[in-house]
Design goal:
This protein is of the alpha/beta class. The chain has one domain (about 10-230): 3-Layer(aba) Sandwich (Rossmann fold), CATH 3.40.50.150. About 25% of the residues lie in helices and about 25% in strands. Helix 1 packs parallel to helix 2.
Length: about 240
C-alpha cells in the first residue's frame, strides 16, 4: 500500500504506515514516547512495538546507537521494520518478531512499553487485537520478569497503563517506581492513565510525582502542558 494512503499517520519528522497492525497510533503511545527519559541511553528496547511509533520517537529524541522494537505479532514487526527503514534513523532502528519472554542478549539502558492491560475482560473476536490489548500472551508478572532480566544496572523501565493496572504491575515487580505522571483528560477529571518509570533501586524515599492534563476546560482545546510535551512530534502543534 502506498505511504500516501489514508493509513499513514504523519508526524513532523517521520511517518507511520499502520495498515497491517491491530493497534493504530494513539495518544498513549505518543505520550509515553515523549515523556520517558532517554538521556544517556545507548541501547533502547520498545516492547510490543506495534507500528514502531515509540521506537521512532526515541530515535528522534536521543542518540542511542541501537533501538530495538519487538512484537509477538509478525505482521506488526514487519510494519515497524518498514517504518524504520523509511525514517531518517534507519541505521539505528531494528525490528524483531519474537515473544518478549524469549529475549536474550545484552541489556538495555531504557525499556519502554505501552503493554496490553485487559486482564479479565471480554476478548475481541479479532485475535490480533486480543493479543495487542489483552494479557493473554504476556502477563504483568512476565513483563516484569523480562524487564528485570533485560535492564542494565542503572536502566529504567517506562510504562503507560490505566491507574488500577499500574498498581497491579507495581505489585508484580521487584523494580522500584522512581517517577510517576498521572494523566487526566480534562481539568479535575479522573486519572485515566499513569506513566511510570521503574529502576532497580529507589533514588529517594518516594517517586517523583507529576501530573498532565490533556485538554483545557474548553472541549477540543489542548492544554499548554500537553502541547509542550508533544509539540516536537504532532503536526497540529
Amino acid at each position: 500500500m502506498s505511504r500516501a494512503s489514508m493509513s499513514v499517520f504523519r508526524f513532523k519528522h517521520f511517518e507511520v504506515e499502520q495498515s497491517d497492525v491491530a493497534m493504530k497510533v494513539g495518544t498513549d503511545g505518543v505520550l509515553l514516547g515523549a515523556w520517558c527519559r532517554l538521556s544517556g541511553a545507548r541501547r533502547v528496547l520498545d516492547l510490543g512495538t506495534g507500528t514502531g511509533v515509540i521506537a521512532l520517537m526515541a530515535a528522534e529524541r536521543c542518540d542511542a546507537e541501537y533501538i530495538l522494537g519487538v512484537d509477538i505479532d509478525e505482521q506488526a514487526a514487519c510494519c515497524a521494520a518498514r517504518n524504520f527503514e523509511c525514517s531518517p534513523w534507519s541505521e539505528r532502528l531494528h525490528s524483531l518478531a519474537l515473544p518478549a519472554q524469549m529475549l536474550e542478549g545484552e541489556p538495555f539502558d531504557v525499556i519502554v512499553s505501552n503493554p496490553p492491560y485487559f486482564v479479565n475482560s471480554l476478548l475481541s473476536p479479532d485475535s490480533r487485537r486480543t493479543v495487542a490489548r489483552h494479557t493473554t500472551e504476556i502477563t504483568f508478572a512476565e513483563l516484569a520478569a523480562v524487564a528485570e532480566r533485560m535492564l542494565s544496572e542503572h536502566g529504567r523501565l517506562a510504562l503507560i497503563l490505566p491507574s488500577e493496572e499500574m498498581e497491579r504491575f507495581a505489585s508484580e515487580t521487584h523494580l522500584c517506581m522512581v517517577r510517576r505522571c498521572d494523566v487526566r483528560s480534562i481539568p479535575g477529571g479522573a486519572v485515566k492513565r499513569v506513566m511510570a518509570e521503574f529502576a532497580r533501586s529507589a533514588e529517594g524515599e518516594a517517586p517523583q510525582l507529576e501530573t498532565l492534563t490533556i485538554e483545557t476546560d474548553v472541549r477540543g482545546e489542548f492544554s499548554e502542558e500537553y502541547r509542550a510535551l508533544t509539540k516536537e512530534f504532532y503536526l497540529k502543534f
